[in-house]
């Protein structure tokens, strides 16, 4: 896999800077603008999905903005190994080396993917030396500190530790929400701030997972996107709230919404609230038909199934019932 040029969509102007990444962002901008010694390598490290690739390619795009004639090369660890394997098979190692050593700036992503790959590591060591001797720049990204990388030979680890090592930490809630709002604007999605914060609270793994959730929501949800529709459409991917959702919690929320007592859901006097409550219990709790029924006046599994089918029909045909269901789902999922 031959090296590429940076993706032009990754720029400093759309990189959300926060306490979790400002040191890395500042250092990356200095490298991009040649404000430090070119012979000092830089390693950006942190867990997957935190913006390392964005920052890495933003360096290349900023360098190109300042010097359109610069030769910027972007490659990943897997791509580097595949490119080397093809060169070895074709007897074209000289051409392989030339593709990289001629770069004014080499951007090397996912360096940890070379763990245990002896020949690929040896070639990267050779490339390190060639670039630094000619006062050209190399910036790498990995999922952990160079000191903590396993399966990496001593000579490569020594070179990774030659220069500046900066980390990107997991973003806080405000940063996660800001990233979502920016992506929504870029993709033309009407995303209310309260929904961005809702997703940010529920998905804390990485920014890439947040972006996937936003795309899924935009594809599935009716516009405009509300808290209720977000909770419903992403119910299988968002984290459960800190408070466990129980049958009693569902009953209390439904009763409060309709202005009735929770005990009224144990009889047939309020058919629609009863159907809605049982449907929500099956959707949001860990209980099955046989367990939900007895909590609603001793009903059996067949009665619960019938009620849920009627609730589904009502959601498809009755706008008021659908709004009630979505509103309660949003309240219980928050």
UniProtKB/TrEMBL annotation:
Domain spans labelled Chromosomal replication initiator DnaA C-terminal: 246-311
GO cellular component terms, A-Z: plasma membrane
Pfam families, sorted: Bac_DnaA (PF00308), Bac_DnaA_C (PF08299)
AAA+ ATPase domain ranges (all copies): 38-209
CDD domains: AAA (cd00009), Bac_DnaA_C (cd06571)
Keywords: ATP-binding, Cytoplasm, DNA replication, DNA-binding, Lipid-binding, Nucleotide-binding
GO molecular function: ATP binding; DNA replication origin binding; lipid binding
InterPro entries referenced in this protein's UniProt entry, alphabetically: AAA+_ATPase (IPR003593), Chromosome_initiator_DnaA-like (IPR020591), DnaA_C (IPR013159), DnaA_dom (IPR013317), P-loop_NTPase (IPR027417), Trp_repressor/repl_initiator (IPR010921)
One of the GO biological process terms: DNA replication initiation
Key word tRNA processing present: no
Protein family membership: Belongs to the DnaA family.
Protein name, UniProt field: DnaA domain protein
Species of provenance: Methylococcus capsulatus (strain ATCC 33009 / NCIMB 11132 / Bath)
């Amino acid at each position: 896999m031959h090296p590429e040029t940076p993706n032009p969509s990754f720029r400093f102007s759309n990189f959300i800077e926060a306490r979790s990444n400002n040191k890395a962002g500042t250092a990356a901008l200095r490298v991009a603008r040649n404000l430090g010694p070119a012979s000092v390598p830089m390693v950006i490290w942190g867990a997957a999905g935190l913006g390392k690739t964005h920052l890495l390619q933003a360096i290349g795009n900023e360098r190109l903005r300042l010097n359109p004639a610069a030769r910027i090369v972007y490659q990943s660890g897997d791509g580097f190994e595949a490119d080397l394997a093809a060169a070895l098979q074709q007897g074209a190692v000289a051409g392989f080396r030339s593709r990289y050593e001629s770069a004014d700036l080499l951007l090397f992503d996912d360096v940890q993917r070379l763990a245990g790959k002896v020949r690929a590591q040896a070639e990267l060591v050779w490339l390190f030396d060639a670039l630094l001797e000619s006062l050209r720049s190399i910036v790498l990204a990995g999922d952990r500190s160079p000191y903590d990388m396993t399966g990496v030979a001593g000579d490569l680890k020594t070179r990774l530790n030659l220069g500046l090592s900066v980390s990107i930490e997991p973003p806080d809630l405000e940063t996660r929400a800001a990233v979502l709002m920016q992506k929504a604007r870029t993709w033309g999605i009407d995303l209310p701030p309260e929904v961005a914060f809702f997703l940010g609270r529920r998905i804390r793994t990485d920014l890439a997972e947040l972006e996937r959730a936003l795309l899924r929501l935009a594809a599935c949800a009716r516009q405009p996107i509300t808290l209720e529709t977000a909770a419903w459409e992403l119910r299988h991917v968002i984290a459960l709230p800190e408070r466990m959702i129980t049958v009693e919690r569902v009953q209390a929320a439904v009763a409060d919404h309709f202005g009735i007592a929770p005990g009224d859901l144990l009889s047939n006097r309020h058919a629609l609230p009863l159907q809605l409550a049982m449907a929500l219990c099956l959707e949001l709790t860990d209980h099955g038909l046989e367990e939900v029924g007895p909590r609603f006046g001793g009903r059996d599994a067949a009665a619960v199934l019938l009620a849920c089918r009627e609730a589904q029909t009502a959601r498809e045909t009755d706008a008021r019932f659908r709004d009630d269901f979505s509103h309660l789902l949003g309240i219980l999922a928050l």
